[in-house]
Design brief:
The protein has 7 helices and 6 strands, in the order E-H-E-H-E-H-H-E-H-E-E-H-H. By secondary structure, it is an alpha/beta fold. It has a 6-stranded parallel β-sheet. The radius of gyration is 18 Å and the shape is globular.
Length: 213
């Protein structure tokens, strides 16, 4: 398309957004590495680390750190990392957290601003894939996103479930889990290898996981 002056105008490109949801209790180096891998492999404009307000699959089984504290830790974890953003959509919405509602919120925001609908990539670890059929309104979610499965080096491919449009993201082999980190923190054992320094400072400042008490 050309203007009257003969200048070529390219139609606006749909924004490419990575949606990386989680409890982040706490956010660790593996989370950050997975988000960066998805950003780089998929050419994402933004990766939103969406902090669950009330993770319905976890709340019945253990005490979850308050959402505002988890959001503060995620902000600390991604501060200064290009294109990675902490997102509090599910906290502000309140109640139990469902990914499909967050996807619909992103689409509605773009519509209100007169923008093309974004291309949404749902970023998950390979360990999450078997649980996808249990997610809320999974049929609508499957139609709205492309599944981006982050796979650790050396592990076999993890194909998406039937009916999903998916892509594999080679990840970084960061062997750490939030439950492991919580145990280390509660025992006052070293966690510098597992957490970004800014997250450790945030934990100490807020006296989380009995650290700093």
């Amino acid at each position: 398309m050309k203007t009257e002056c003969g200048v070529d105008l390219q139609p606006p490109r749909s924004e490419r957004i990575g949606l990386f949801g989680g409890t982040f209790d706490p956010p660790h180096n593996g989370h950050v590495a997975a988000a960066i891998a998805a950003r780089d492999v998929l050419g994402l404009d933004r990766v939103l680390l969406v902090v669950a307000n009330s993770p319905w699959q976890k709340v019945p089984h253990r005490t979850v750190t308050p959402a505002e504290d988890r959001y503060a830790m995620v902000r600390a974890a991604v501060n200064g990392v290009p294109a990675l953003q902490a997102d509090r959509t599910e906290i502000d919405r309140g109640g139990e957290s469902y990914t499909i509602e967050t996807v619909e919120t992103l689409l509605e925001r773009a519509h209100r601003r007169g923008l093309e609908a974004p291309l949404i990539f749902l970023v998950v670890g390979a360990d999450v894939v078997p649980s996808l059929p249990t997610w809320e309104r999974v049929d609508a979610l499957r139609q709205a996103v492309t599944l981006a499965v982050v796979v650790r080096p050396g592990l076999p491919p993890t194909p998406p479930p039937a009916g999903w449009q998916g892509v594999e993201v080679p990840g970084v082999n960061v062997d750490v889990s939030s439950s492991q980190v919580r145990t280390l923190l509660e025992r006052n054992e070293p966690v510098e290898w597992a957490l970004p320094p800014a997250v450790i400072r945030c934990i100490r400042r807020r006296h989380l996981y009995a650290m700093g008490q």
